[in-house]
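Fold this: Amino acid ABC transporter ATP-binding protein
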Amino acid sequence: MSEAPVPGGPLLRMESVRKSFGDSVVLRDVDLEVAPHTVTTLIGASGSGKSTLLRCANLLEEVDDGAIWLDGEEITDPRTDQDAVRRRIGVVFQAYNLFPHMTVLENITLAPRRVHGAGRAEAEAHARELLERLGLGAKADEYPDRLSGGQQQRAAIVRALAVRPRLLLLDEITAALDPELVGEVLDVVRDVKADGMTMVLATHEMGFAREVSDQVCFLEDGVILERGTPEQVFGDPRQERTRRFLGRIVEAGRL
């Protein structure tokens, strides 16, 4: 198992990753490389394997075959400390998953203090800095039920950032939001990208994917059928199935 980062190499690398649930094959020999300080966006219909790919990257799902590397370390090696790996990865899901009995500040400082060993003063100072920068400074002492859906999702992103992750995974983070709240959450992702965070995100927001991505991957039936720059994938897709998928998106007015 390689422990040292590979100079100039990808921050995240997947090689021939396969994952099945029973008789259903969800990921089929997936290869993926994510360079540091870039945004890779996964697009495709529901059920194409996007969420499972993200869950495998965070070791929330065990791969059946293949290997995954983070910073040059093979994290799918059986000897890997999975909890240590997860401490280097931030994850935000569709559901906000904020603890309702804790204030926003308490939610955000829980992992830095309990998992990463930060002191209360250090954790709270960093949390307040992030909240202020991402437009939630006035909500630090509120409870989640006093926040809008968009504010709760922004708080969930702050919570993921508070552990200073090497990699941030975002799984359809606007799917549960009313349309008028989507923009404020996407603005936060733009700010995080500007800070140089490495991200892999799954989204149905095609216009946003075209704007924010460095690499776009189109998945169908657990296979990455096409990958490239946003200009290439959205402007001149090579695969017929990619063209059909994007055609349906255009007809629905989402691109």
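The longest helix spans residues 179-194. Confidence is low (pLDDT under 50) at residues 1-5.
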